[in-house]
Amino acid sequence: MAMREIRVMPDPVLRTPCDPITAIDERVRGLVADLLETVDHEGRAGLAANQIGVGLRAFSWNIEGDIGYVLNPRVVELGDETQDGGEGCLSVPRLWYPTVRANFARVVGTDLDGNEVEVSGEGLMARCLQHECDHLDGKLYLDRLEREARKEAMRELRAGL
């Protein structure tokens, strides 16, 4: 288990869709341990495998003291009600922008024993589930911003703020 370095923009791994996990082996067990160790710090709500340089479909979360992980997650339900709160990303440091997300999300995947798991929640948990699944698809929250906010964020990124 190791605290891993977070990859930041413009690292191409962040824009590359992750591969499904086809076998639970020591590499995958080590990845999960690293994801859990790396997300277990103040101010970290979630962490996708590609954020630590691994192109496999796995992420961890740390929401209000609840820490967990899911392998091969897929969003199976989004609520009709939306939330428009501020969102940031460890891979896009120092930027924080209002981002519209569903207020409820449900994700299905597997655990390290190959058992199906379901993770769902509202508010911050829903935002986290959607944000991390986006990462695994090679997307960043910046892609979801309104046009003007996205232009401003890209200017800030280019300026190195």
From TrEMBL:
Q: Which reaction does it catalyse?
A: N-terminal N-formyl-L-methionyl-[peptide] + H2O = N-terminal L-methionyl-[peptide] + formate
What residue intervals traverse the membrane?
none
Its cofactor is: Fe(2+)
| CDD domains assigned to the protein according to its UniProt record, in alphabetical order | Pep_deformylase
Q: What is its EC number?
A: 3.5.1.88
Under SUPFAM superfamilies, the record lists: Peptide deformylase (SSF56420)
Cofactor: binding comment: Binds 1 Fe(2+) ion.
By its UniProt entry, which InterPro entries does this protein fall under?
A: Peptide_deformylase, Peptide_deformylase_sf
User: Which Pfam families does the entry mention?
Assistant: Pep_deformylase
Task: Give me the residues that bind Fe cation, please.
Answer: C89, H131, H135
List UniProt keywords, sorted A-Z: Hydrolase, Iron, Metal-binding, Protein biosynthesis
Q: Which residues form the active site?
A: E132
User: HAMAP family annotated for this entry?
Assistant: Pep_deformylase (MF_00163)
Q: Which family does it belong to?
A: Belongs to the polypeptide deformylase family.
Q: What does the UniProt function comment say about this protein?
A: Removes the formyl group from the N-terminal Met of newly synthesized proteins. Requires at least a dipeptide for an efficient rate of reaction. N-terminal L-methionine is a prerequisite for activity but the enzyme has broad specificity at other positions.
Q: What is this protein called?
A: Peptide deformylase
What organism, scientifically named, is this protein from? Answer: Myceligenerans crystallogenes
